[in-house]
Amino acid sequence: MRLTAAALVFLLTSCGDGSHKTRIAVFRGEELTPLTQALGYFADERLDVEILEVPSSSKAMEALFGESVEAVAGGYDQAMRLAAEGRNPRSFLVLTVRSPLSLVASPKSKVRTIGALKGATVGVSAFGSSGHNLVNLLAARHGLAAGDLNVVATGGGHSVTVAAAEQGRLDAVVTLPASLSVLRARHPDLAVLADGTTAEGTRAIFGVDRYPAVCLMARGQWLDRNQDTARRLARAMRRTLDWVRSHTAEEFGSKLARADDIEGFRATIASVSPDGRMPSGGPEAVRDALAVSAPQVKQVNLAATYTEALVP
Questions:
Q1: How far, rounded to the nearest angstrom, does the alpha carbon of residue 271 sit from its chain's CA centroid?
Q2: Among 145, 164, 166, 173, which is least packed by CB within 10 angstroms?
Q3: Residue 95: in which H helix or E strand, if any?
Q4: CA-CA distance, 136 to 290, in Å (whole number)?
Q5: Which structural domain range is residue 252 located in?
Q6: What is the pLDDT of residue 17?
Q7: SS3 33
Q8: 227-245 and 262-271 helices cross at what angle (nearest 10)?
Q9: So what's the pLDDT on residue 282?
Q10: What is the structure's pLDDT at 259?
């Protein structure tokens, strides 16, 4: 049998070493995907992974549906929002079962309760982000309307969040574990208005013990066509969840060459999913929390927003 030149090139490039080029968008501060890369678990699965860091989960989803990436490690609430718009994002591995987000008052602010935020300026990473959804939920719970707050987008990032809080340009700001740990260390009397990183905070904010906060997600059509690649991705990151639970925050930081955020790594360790599966009642909790910002999510078919068929 004779092969054309084009067919030969196809065979060489598609077989080769069996690697699969995959681009994953992560929000700034998401650590499990870079850790998987550092541990060599993607390489073990013969995956050539490129990680794209963006300011927020909402921006990661923009990249996903703009088809500049194949997968996202980001907020499951963003998948729910897009499902309500007729898109078909789907989670195929739950990474964390606590929110990485907290709402804290600026050290220079007199705000000490969520109810006192009326007329205040509150910083979130991006408009429509998971942090923005959290602010809307907390405000509504305390009798505040959306117009009662002045929400501004900071662009996210550890140093930006800390600086915005300390300079007093904001009355309150949504933090990730890294910025929260720095602010707490520098300001022992820091007013934490809501803390999604703890079991108690998760229960108080979302009403469940396990809240599917950060998930590995892709477009439904891509998952249907690339189940082998998706299964490899899930298997690699599932190994990372196991590694995190059996290692210290110091070892976590060492793998990422970051020894300055041990408290943040401890929060991540405490939040990782025990098995990668969608927790019972989790989709309902996300829908109910998000409905404050996007009432249309009440019509979403929750079963279509995730699959457990690829969980190792």
A1: 12
A2: 145
A3: strand 89-96
A4: 9
A5: 18-98+210-305
A6: 40
A7: helix
A8: 120
A9: 97
A10: 73
Rounded to the nearest 5°, which phi and psi values hold at 96? -130, 150
- Give yes or no for a contact between 186 and 163, defined as CB atoms under 8 angstroms apart: no
Predicted confidence at residue 168, as pLDDT, reads 83
Distances (CA, A) of 294 to 77, 137, 192, 206, 297: 10, 11, 26, 16, 6
Q: What is the largest CA-CA distance in the chain?
A: 80
**What are the angstrom distances between the C-alpha of 212 and each of 250, 279, 281, 305?**
25, 7, 9, 12
Cα gap 196→27, rounded to integer Å: 17
Which pLDDT belongs to residue 94?
98
Taking Cα atoms as reference points, which of 146, 137, 141, 156 lies closest to residue 290?
Answer: 137
Give the CATH number, domain containing residue 57.
3.40.190.10
What does the chain come to in residues? Answer: 312
Beta strand 192-195 pairing with 172-175: unpaired
Residues 301 and 215 in one domain: yes
If asked whether residues 37 and 87 sit together in one domain, one would say yes
Query: Does any domain span residue 25?
Result: yes
* Pairing state between β 71-75 and 20-27: parallel
**25 and 62 housed in the same domain:** yes
Strand order in the sheet with 214-219: 47-54, 20-27, 71-75, 214-219, 89-96
In terms of domains, do 185 and 255 share one? no
Instruction: Give pLDDT, residue 206.
Output: 95
- Name residues of the chain where pLDDT drops below 50: 1-18
pLDDT of residue 169: 86
Please report the pLDDT score of residue 261 as a whole number.
80
What is the CA 153 to chain-centroid distance, rounded? 17
Residue 126's identity, in one-letter code, is: A
- Looking at residue 21, its pLDDT comes to 87
Decide the pairing of beta strands 47-54 and 71-75.
unpaired
All residues at 6 or more sequence positions from 8 whose CB lies less than 8 Å from its CB, including other chains: none
Beta-bridged to residue 124, according to DSSP, are 153
